[in-house]
Amino acid sequence: MSYDFDLFVIGGGSGGVRCARIAAGHGAKVAVAEERFWGGTCVNIGCVPKKLLVMAAEYAGAVQESRGFGWDTQLGRHDWPALIAAKDKEINRLNSAYRRMMDGAGCTMFDARAVLIDAHTLDVGGKRVTADRIVIATGGRPTRPDFPGADLCIVSDDAFYLPELPKRITILGGGYIAVEFAGIFAGLGAQVDLVFRQKLPLRGFDEDIREGLDAALLAQGINVIRERTVATVTATADGRLVTLSDGSQLETNLLFAAMGRHAYTADLGLDAAGVQTRSNGAIVVDAEMATSQPNIFAIGDVTDRLNLTPVAIAQGHSLADRLFGPGPRIWHLDAVATAVFSSPPIGTVGLTEAQAAANGPADIYLASFTPMRHTLSGRSRRTVMKLIVDQASQRVVGAHMLGEDAPEILQGLSVAINAGATKADFDRTVGIHPTAAEEFVTMRTRTRVAGAAAAKAAE
């Protein structure tokens, strides 16, 4: 049977664009449909603009720190609309770059929503097209709360377009989006309440890192409200009245719900095409990203497996190579490094202490110290660094850091961990002095043993 396209990609985010470009480079006739904006969440309302806002927020702390180094500096007034305008200009540039990349690769682009009619047919903005193979790369969307008054909240998509910075902002959630925006808004001068249901932020991260971040949030003056949720929200003349699960109340100018994300699969015609989803809407795929319909594939956050932009890119590239090229490129996805751009930031790769302990005895190396900068700056900031070593093999199976430049440092360590480096390999590596990073290769004394009843109480 003849089709309009060899490959049709639904979604013009990072993963979908990479898949389309590589497939086109292998000679496939490719089309891509994007209903919102090219580059997807990461480029437009996610990783990239968020980090620009994080950078903006860091300048207030830098001005204050500079006085400890002899500078007669004064903190001025921040211009939020000017920051948003500058951010928008850069995002528009990147958005256009994605369009140019697709055009240069010879892909057909549709600025429209694509819906599956059957396993090979799509409705694209009212036009019917056919494709031999289809890739779903629609990503995710912020999850909106369902308590009374939830319509009075904003979500992360909205936070990038606020016309002005409110004086007081209440953030609901303890995940990475919540703690990142807490640092952004506090750094730019807002009073921030952070409400979450756990004892510590960042559920699922290593406990020492969670504790370190908790202390850092408090040091920034953020009002941390733990083990509570929002019960109801009502509008007031100045903003919102938030009633918490324990009956206490907060008056705020803005309520920001950062309660995670979900796969964007609603009304895509998946049932009609025979594509199976899980109860949360995420698409079920096998190890080769194939869905229950053999010619339809899914990559990235829409599968709700490892929801990171570089992972979606890797999956898209590998899939295009397998379908149209010489075979799939091999990527290391067992220990993927990631970052949380909190204040200070977090970098992490591999197993947490709890995960390693579940597999057997693990040696834990932990350091916590005041960075050199802050011995003079007067700012209350700590760095936490941690190595997790499988006791039997002495392989380093996890590395975690809270502190300045943590994401940059952990990218290098992820290479070592994915290559199977042992603690002895770290020990015989000469450090760069004076840096915080050298601590990772100078940790000689084991802090504790985890797992297998703490290795029978460390014998």
What is the annotated CATH architecture of the largest domain? 3-Layer(bba) Sandwich
In one word, what is the shape?
A: globular
Low-pLDDT stretches? none
The CATH homologous superfamily name of the largest domain equals: FAD/NAD(P)-binding domain
Using DSSP, what is the number of strands?
Answer: 22
Determine the N-to-C terminus distance: 69 Å
Helicity, in percent? Answer: 25-40%
Task: Report the radius of gyration as a whole number of Å.
Answer: 24 Å
The helix/strand class is alpha/beta
* Whole-number total of structural domains: 3
- What fraction of the residues are assigned to beta strands by DSSP? 15-25%
Rounded mean pLDDT is 96
What's the CATH class label of the largest domain? Alpha Beta
Oligomer designation:
single chain
Largest sheet: 7 strands, mixed
Structure annotation, total helices:
14
CATH topology name of the largest domain, in short, is FAD/NAD(P)-binding domain
Describe the structure in your own words.
By secondary structure, the protein is α/β, with parallel strands linked by helices. It has three domains: 5-142 and 262-324, FAD/NAD(P)-binding domain (3-Layer(bba) Sandwich), CATH 3.50.50.60; 150-259, FAD/NAD(P)-binding domain, CATH 3.50.50; 338-454, 2-Layer Sandwich (Enolase-like, domain 1), CATH 3.30.390.30. It contains 14 helices and 22 strands. It has helices at 14-25, 40-45, 47-66, 80-104, 156-159, 176-187, 207-219, 270-273, 309-324, 353-359, 373-377, 406-418, 423-427, 452-458; strands spanning 5-10, 30-33, 108-110, 114-116, 121-124, 127-136, 140-142, 168-172, 191-196, 223-226, 230-235, 240-244, 249-252, 254-257, 261-263, 296-298, 338-340, 346-350, 362-369, 383-390, 396-402, 448-450. The strands form five sheets. Strands 1, 2, 3, 4, 5, 6 and 16 form a seven-stranded mixed β-sheet that branches. Strand 20 (383-390) and strand 21 form a beta hairpin. The longest helix is centred in the N-terminal third of the chain and has 25 residues, at 80-104. It is globular, with a radius of gyration of 24 Å. The chain starts with a strand and ends with a helix. The model has no long low-confidence stretch (mean pLDDT 96).
